[in-house]
Amino acid sequence: MRLTVSDKESHLAKLKVMCARSMHVAVGALGDAFAKAEGHEIAFDFATVGAIQEKLDKGDSADVLVVSTGMIDKLEKASALVPGSRKVVAKTVIALCTRAGAPIPKFATRDEFVRLLHEAKTIATSDPAVAGSAGVHLAKMFEREGLAAMMATKCLPQKSGVEVARRVVEGKAEFGLTLSGEVASVEGAVIAGAVPPPFGLDTTYAAAVTASSAAKQAAAALIAALTAPDTRETWRKAGFEAG
């Protein structure tokens, strides 16, 4: 059966997507392509996972959430998501960011990484006060490893991972520490590699349709588009490993 113009229009949806900020390049590009192909409208809200949780706690809503699996777990337990709609999207790591053309330092082991921290004069990091996963995790690790006082004299805390990478490119920091997905979006910034344990952190993100969505079918179709096999290169270029 062929749909008439009026039938097609009745199937169009206006979707709101709340998504972890580090994924803005890939999700933005793939989401826009989906919207153009299907005729839907998508409004993106990119923020830290902590900020998204605060918005939901205050009564804000969305049709699709693309956040950490830990947050998805909590929302599933609260019956805030459509059962079975959850799907792993991609994984990112806390990476060491350098400026294009600069030598890559040795930091593959814990000892090498700690030595690098001691030798550096300025290090751009994500500000833990913003509630980004990289900044929060690193602050905890620096405290646990007895490095917090030293790092306080070296760190240039930034409001986002993108700003971390920009400070490195500008030469204001010798290197940066933030999520690989945010480094990949800044021209002139290089992902030198993943930070070693215990400082490193792999973060897996998943997408799900909210129970309150009025466009559940379109929301599920968007998630399918974000996780299709042919999106792997888009995710790789954005600094992620596709799920």
Structure description:
It is elongated, with a radius of gyration of 19 Å. By secondary structure, the chain is of the alpha/beta class. The model is unreliable at 1-10 (pLDDT under 50). It has helices at residues 5-10, 24-38, 49-57, 69-77, 110-119, 133-144, 148-152, 161-169, 180-183, 216-226, 232-237, and strands at 14-20, 41-47, 64-68, 87-99, 123-126, 155-158, 175-179, 189-194, 202-209, 241-242. Helix 2 (24-38) links the parallel strand 1 and strand 2 (41-47). The chain folds into two domains: 5-91 and 204-242, Periplasmic binding protein-like II (D-Maltodextrin-Binding Protein, domain 2), CATH 3.40.190; 93-194, D-Maltodextrin-Binding Protein, domain 2 (3-Layer(aba) Sandwich). Strands 1, 2, 3, 4, 5, 6, 7, 8, 9 and 10 form a ten-stranded mixed beta sheet that branches. The chain has eleven helices and ten strands. The two termini are 35 Å apart. The protein is 40% helix and 25% strand.
Broad shape: elongated
- Number of E-state strands: 10
**Rg calc:** 19 Å
Termini separation comes to 35 Å
Q: Helical region count?
A: 11
The number of distinct structural domains comes to: 2
SSE sequence, one letter per element? HEHEHEHEHEHHEHEHEEHHE
Question: What is the fourth-level CATH superfamily of the largest domain?
Answer: Periplasmic binding protein-like II
CATH fold-level label of the largest domain: D-Maltodextrin-Binding Protein, domain 2
* CATH architect. name of the largest domain: 3-Layer(aba) Sandwich
Strand content: 25-35%
Q: Helical amount among residues, as a percent range? A: 25-40%
Low-confidence blocks of residues: 1-10
- The average pLDDT score comes to 92
**Based on helices, strands and strand pairing, what is the structural class?**
alpha/beta
The largest β sheet comes out as: 10 strands, mixed
